[in-house]
Automatic annotation (TrEMBL):
Highest rank taxon of the organism: Bacteria
Pfam families, alphabetized: Phage_HCP
Protein name: Head-tail adaptor protein
NCBIfam families in the record: gp16_SPP1 (TIGR01563)
Source organism: Pseudohoeflea suaedae
InterPro entries: Phage_SPP1_head-tail_adaptor, SSP1_head-tail_sf
Length: 111
């Protein structure tokens, strides 16, 4: 899929890229916290909503495709913060193999 994005304003979502950081909790375990790595501009597109149920409570899984300029440090397991929402990165790909952009398939998480 060849893309040609000439409009400089198409990346209109301000995102924060975050990585997990684990610290010892003093009792033999660890606590996970999130550390901001970078502020990025991107485009967020909703992909799907899948209704479900967990522990007899109705819920839904929302997925989004987040497109950003290519970076070497974006990996599965990181997340984006966007407008008070948390988007967990589940897959990263170069949509047209040009090295210009990355598509990140994300699942929306509770903040």
């Amino acid at each position: 899929m060849r893309r040609s994005f000439n409009d400089p304003g198409w990346l209109d979502a301000r995102l924060t890229l975050e990585v997990p950081s684990e610290a010892a909790d003093g009792q033999g375990g660890a606590t996970r916290d999130w550390v901001s790595v970078a502020g990025l501009w991107g485009a967020v597109h909703p992909v799907s909503v899948r209704p479900g149920e967990e522990a007899a409570v109705a819920n839904a899984t929302l997925t989004h495709r987040v497109t950003i300029r290519a970076r070497d440090d974006v990996l599965r397991g990181m997340r984006f913060s966007w407008r008070g929402r948390v988007l967990a990165i589940e897959a990263v790909s170069d949509p047209d193999e040009s090295g210009a952009y990355l598509d990140c398939m994300c699942r929306e998480m509770a903040p």
